[in-house]
Amino acid sequence: MDESVITINSGKINEYLHHIDLKGFGTTRMLSVILGVFDGYSILIDCGTSLDIKKALRYFKRHQIPLSSFKYLITSHHHADH
User: Fold this and answer.
1) DSSP 8-class letter at 13
2) Are 39 and 15 in contact (CB under 8 A)?
3) Burial class of residue 56 (count of CB atoms within 10 Å of its CB; 0-12, 13-18, 19+)
4) Is there a domain that residue 81 lies in?
5) 3 domain residue, yes or no
6) Which residues contact 39 (CB under 8 A, 6 or more apart)?
7) Residues near 53 by Cβ (< 8 Å), separated by ≥ 6?
8) Which InterPro entries does the entry link to (predicted)?
9) Which end of the chain is more exposed for a tag (fewer CB within 10 A), N or C?
10) How far apart are CA 55 and CA 61, in angstroms?
């Protein structure tokens, strides 16, 4: 597991958190989602755009995170992408 303070790559940050670069508008580091996976439930901090949902769903599937586990969606700010 990467112990860097700043991460730019998609993947698991620590035991509970994942960083997902959705590559918004085809550009890396343009649009990120933070995923928290805890005992029996998951949360999303920011969610990306409807244009990028397939990328997020692929990440969840690849990491065996069922959609039924999501309990909270937290937005960090009001913006056109969420």
Assistant:
1) -
2) no
3) middle
4) no
5) no
6) none
7) none
8) Metallo-B-lactamas, RibonucZ/Hydroxyglut_hydro
9) N
10) 10
Looking at residue 19, its pLDDT comes to: 92
pLDDT at res. 57: 94
Query: Is residue 19 included in any domain, yes or no?
Result: yes
Domain that holds residue 34: 11-74
- Is pTM beyond 0.85? Reply is no
Instruction: Please name the amino acid found at residue 9.
Output: N
CA trace torsion 6, 75, 36, 26 (10° rounding): -60
Degrees, nearest 5: CA angle 52-56-62: 145
| Helix/strand/coil for 56 | helix
* 32 DSSP β-pair partners: 21
In the chain, how many domains are there?
1
Euclidean distance between CA atoms 68 and 74, whole angstroms:
17
The verdict on residue 69 lying in a domain is yes
